[in-house]
Write a structure and sequence with these properties.
Oligomer: single chain
Structural class: mainly alpha
Number of strands: 0
Pfam families: Fur_reg_FbpB (PF13040)
Shape: elongated
Largest sheet: none
Number of helices: 2
Order of helices and strands: HH
Distance between the termini: 58 Å
Organism: Neobacillus rhizophilus
Radius of gyration: 16 Å
Strand content: under 5%
Protein name: FbpB family small basic protein
């Protein structure tokens, strides 16, 4: 049996991104974190 080809970093990133886009809860969490950072820098 052949070993699966190692995926490049770009492939892993795009796969991860597509999974995140499907996962609404994770997206909400990320958006809240980004918003909190923006508010922290604004003060």
């Amino acid at each position: 049996m052949r070993k699966p080809r190692k995926r490049s970093f770009a492939e892993l990133v795009s796969e991860n991104k597509s999974q995140l886009l499907k996962d609404r809860a994770a997206m909400e969490k990320i958006e809240q974190r980004i918003e909190a950072k923006r508010l922290g820098k604004a003060e």
